[in-house]
From TrEMBL, chain A:
Protein name: ATPase
Native source organism of the sequence: Flagellimonas olearia
InterPro entries found in the cross-reference section: ASHA1/2-like_C, START-like_dom_sf
Taxonomy of the source species: Bacteria, Pseudomonadati, Bacteroidota, Flavobacteriia, Flavobacteriales
Family of this protein: Belongs to the AHA1 family.
Gene3D superfamilies, alphabetized: 3.30.530.20
Pfam families reported for this sequence: AHSA1
Domain Activator of Hsp90 ATPase homologue 1/2-like C-terminal: 24-150
UniProtKB/TrEMBL annotation, chain B:
InterPro entries, alphabetized: ArsR-like_HTH, HTH_ArsR_DNA-bd_dom, HTH_MetalResp_TranReg, WH-like_DNA-bd_sf, WH_DNA-bd_sf
Coiled coil: none
Example GO molecular function: DNA-binding transcription factor activity
Domain HTH arsR-type: 1-90
Gene3D superfamilies: Winged helix-like DNA-binding domain superfamily/Winged helix DNA-binding domain
Organism from which the protein derives: Flagellimonas olearia
Transmembrane segments: none
Keywords: DNA-binding, Transcription, Transcription regulation
PANTHER family: TRANSCRIPTIONAL REGULATOR, ARSR FAMILY (PTHR33154), TRANSCRIPTIONAL REPRESSOR SDPR (PTHR33154:SF33)
Any Pfam family: HTH_20
Name of this protein: ArsR family transcriptional regulator
Length: 156, 106
């Protein structure tokens, strides 16, 4: 199966590279980063603030299955339409240090474009912890499902 | 390759996955871990031993207590941890692509 999204995280480094090819023209791809209503849809998050210009900031909010709210925010350092976005990213009240993100947009052909995202972390340990989050959440969800199943058995 | 096989065996068991999920959130003593399960303390202790042997858990002695931490850092199989992260972004970008393709029709 073709892997459209690739992630490179070299051992012992404090960065992650994510690359993705889109079947979309460059201007259409970039629009998905500009319009708050569109960001909300594909990021699966509420957009509280999105100021796409240097010194602007953004804040997102997600609600987990248990109803807990999690907020994310950052500051925009560079915003060059169809070329690049440089910004910080922070998970509020998570204990994770701020990370730096470089997003580079490029056209491949008339109908195809590419996004290259570089995330830089405070330390190798912080990067590895961030990479583990979906893994830990995945097993935590498996745990919740397990608990539900056990609960159902008890109730029968 | 030996280590890799052990890790997959270790996380194939639902109780062991549940233990990892608990410890990933907070370092815990064996007693505190066992308190989350209906199984006997001996059974849980056996699971902890397996997870420690394949280095998914790390022991940390604090005074008289032993605390267990989630420890994937020694794994040579970092790819196992990258895959859920990759899928997370793949999923987001697939949505982005689908939404933008739809938008263009209007």
């Amino acid at each position: 199966m073709e892997r459209k999204t690739q992630v490179h995280a070299e051992d012992g480094k404090q960065e992650i590279f994510i690359t993705r090819e889109f079947d979309l023209p460059l201007d259409v791809l970039f629009k998905a980063y500009m319009e708050p209503e569109i960001v909300e849809q594909w990021m699966g998050t509420k957009v509280l603030k999105l100021e796409n210009h240097p010194h602007g900031s953004y804040q997102f909010e997600t609600t987990d299955p248990k109803g807990n709210k999690h907020r994310f925010n950052g500051t925009i350092h560079e915003f060059v339409p169809e070329v690049k976005i440089t910004r910080t990213f922070e998970m509020e009240n998570s204990g994770f240090p701020v990370q730096l993100e470089f997003l580079e947009f490029a056209s491949i052909s008339e109908g195809k474009s590419q996004l290259r995202m570089q995330m830089v972390f405070k330390s190798v340990a912080d990067r590895d912890r961030m990479l583990q989050l979906p893994f830990a959440q995945g097993i935590s969800m498996a745990h919740d499902r397990l608990q539900e199943a056990v609960q159902k058995l008890h109730n029968q | 390759m030996e280590l890799r096989r052990d890790v997959f065996q270790a996380i194939a068991d639902p109780t062991r996955r549940a233990i990892i999920a608990l410890v990933a959130a907070n370092a815990m003593t064996p007693g505190a871990i066992a308190g989350n399960f209906d199984s006997s303390r001996q059974t849980i202790s056996k699971h902890i031993q397996i997870l420690t042997e394949c280095e998914l858990l790390r022991q940390d002695q604090q005074g008289r207590e032993i605390y267990y931490h989630f420890n994937p850092s020694k794994l040579k199989t970092i790819a196992d941890f990258i895959e859920p992260f990759r899928e997370l972004w793949d999923d987001r970008f697939n949505k982005l692509e689908a939404i933008m393709k739809n938008q263009r029709k209007f």
